[in-house]
Amino acid sequence: MLLEGKNAIIYGAGGGIGPAVAKAFVREGAKVFLVGRTKAKLDKVAAEVKAAGGSAEVAVFDVLDEKAVEDHLRGVVATAGSVDISFNLVSRGDVQGIPLIDMKVEDYTRAVVNGLSAQFISARAAARQMSEQKSGVILMITSASSAGAVPMMGSTPAADAAMESFMRCFAAEVGANGIRVVGIWTAGVAETLTPANIAEVNSSMQLDEAGVQQIVQAISQMTMLKRPIVLSQVVETATFLASDRASGITGTIVNVTSGLVAVG
Question: What are the φ/ψ torsions at residue 6 (nearest 5 degrees)?
Fold first, then answer.
């Protein structure tokens, strides 16, 4: 198993990608610690993990709370002995679909501040412990919007660019302590595209399920592989990157967009 004996903290574990990541990590032998703001969602993921024979613990707090993050991480180390993987999947409050010339300052900066702060707080806490262990992996996901100049993407490109810059600089600083820091690019993951999720980011897009499927098909035709970007592709890539088999990969972005974005 790729992650046998590893302890993984997953922030935002109740969201669109977190549950699948948790199940894949457990399948490969890891023990998972699920963090988020909604207990019911976390409990559901934990129950599914345990039903499959895995081990999962739930903690409810906001990752923007530095003390809560640090206290929780110390608790994980006290009970499990180590923190081997930290994966931050928390939402940022992105706003899209509004021309930049018409956007409010707070709508533009929210995702940048929230996303960068959340990643910094969780990565810093993890790296302090991982430095003592002389090993560990820190993962994060962005949408690849920083790679180009796409109109009407609102605050997302700026938030992605900020997180990616932090990822590279942090990797350069903590690498000597045996810590790898890696980003994943993905966008338009079919299973995460729901009417509610789309409207939350872009209020002008009020779609039904048929409308969502049209978007999925449109994205598929834009990719080099002419097929949807699906959750299993993202999850299996994350599982590999978290494992020792990816021990030579750090300070970079792994492109999981089926060729929707041509650089990485």
Answer: -90, 150
Cβ count near 109 (within 10 Å): 15
Q: State how beta strands 56-60 and 252-255 pair.
A: unpaired
Is 90 exceeded by the pLDDT of residue 149? no
Task: Evaluate the CA torsion angle 156, 159, 163, 164 in order and state its sign.
Answer: positive
CA distances from 20 to 2, 37, 227, 247 (A): 16, 18, 20, 23
> Is residue 58 within 8 Å of 46, Cβ to Cβ?
yes
Q: Model pTM greater than 0.90?
A: yes
Residue 264 clears pLDDT 70, i.e. is over it: no
Q: How open is the CA angle 202-66-16, to the nearest 5 degrees?
A: 35
Q: Which domains does the chain have, with CATH numbers?
A: 7-187+230-255 (3.40.50.720)
